[in-house]
Every structure is written in structure tokens, then in C-alpha cells.
Amino acid sequence: MTRENRRLPQAKAKMLELSETWRTGLKRAGITLLAVGCLAIAGNAANHALSIYSWQVESDDPFLKQAINEELGNMQPLDFLQSHPARLHDQLLTALPDLADIRIARHLPNRLNIVATARLPVALLQQKETLKLVDRLGHAYESQRTGVAWDLPVLRIGQEKLPEAGRLLAQLQELDSKLFSQLSECRFLPPDTWEMYFERGQRWLLPAGAVQKRIPELLAMLNKPQWQGRAWRVDARMDTRWFFRQANKYGGAI
What we know:
CATH architecture of the largest domain: 3-Layer(aba) Sandwich
Number of domains: 2
Structural class: alpha/beta
Order of helices and strands: HEHHEEEEEEHHEEEHEE
Number of strands: 12
Shape: elongated
Strand order of the largest sheet: 6-5-4-7-8-9-10-11-12
Number of helices: 6
Radius of gyration: 34 Å
């Protein structure tokens, strides 16, 4: 037997072995694909079976409650993945600028319970020719409410001062809501002064670094009998000495 004749059986054996290996691999791949397909079909069926068909919105704000209902209605159909609470939370906060916070709980199989909190604006921000609302945290936003006349003080400041302005206005509103309703304008005067204009020609100058400490101190002073009931222009920027001048209704000083 020649050398070439001896090599033929060996080559055939290798080919058979390789063919068997391919067949085994293809079988395993087929079984795997079948399993994946079954899981995908089952997962898709479960995803649709757990779609959201009803929800309840709790909010003290009727406008916000209606806006959330409309937004969820526009999202239909909401399957299990699309109605994940974290995903809906972000979508609703983005879509509804009047929404400050929202808590979403899923109740299987097909229901959502939602608790919504509205933003509480404390000022209007004037930048060039536009007006935006500013909430207590200093977030500026464009409200979707229509037909509302906002009786709020106007801020004439840069974006970087909004958080501090939100805090000081929220503090004044909590401490003296009547005086807050008389506030017409608030400005920041570089490098370190807040200027606040009220009705009857009143004006406050407050130190930027200690404004939240100074507001309750100043209110306590103005509520004393010798200062109460009159309009004042106050410079309270110094720690050791404040300056008071009685204002008239036209904005001057006496």
C-alpha cells in the first residue's frame, strides 16, 4: 500500500469527526435559540398582560391633577416596561413644569397610585423680555397654567443667584405673609447686597452673606411698638449698626 493510500482513511475519519462536531454545535445553537425565542414570547406576553389600564392621582391642585391624567392618557398604551415608576417619574417631571415632586406606586396587575406636589412660586424672574416663575428652591420655569394673574415680586438677578433668592423669599413669606404680599421687587447689588422694594416706598438693604439671619432680626425690630405701623427705608447690612429713615408713599424719605 502506497503512502497516499494510507492517508485516505485518515482524511475520511477527520472529515467525519468535523461533520459530527458541526452537527452537535448546530443542535445546541438551535436549542438555545428556541429557548431564547420562547422566553422572548413569554416575556412580551407578560409585559402586555401587566399593562397599566387605570390610575389614581392625589393632589391638592386640581390643575395638576388634570394635567397628569391627560399626560398619562396620551402615553397609552403603557406596558409593564413603559410604566416603570422611575421612568414615569422622570417623564412627568419633564413634561409638567408645574410639578415639584411626584411619587408613583405600582399595584399589580394594572394600576398606578400617584401622589403629586405642585411647585409653589414665590417670584417672577424678569430676563430681557421674558417672565418666568421661580419656586422656593430657586428653580425658574414656565408655567402651563393659563389665565392666571401672578401677584408676585419681580426678581432682577442672574441665574446664579436664584437659589439664594428663592430661600430668602420663602423665609419672608413664612415669617410675615402680609409683608411678603407687599413686596414688589428684589434685586442683587454686587458685590454683596440684596435690595428689596415694598409698598409705601419701603426699601430694605440686606447683607448677602447673612440675609437669612438678618430677615427675622429685622422683622423682630419692626414689630416693636416704637417702629410698628410705619413705613421704613432700612439699611441693615452692618452687624453692629442699622440705619432707618421713614419713607413716604411716593418712595422718598422723610
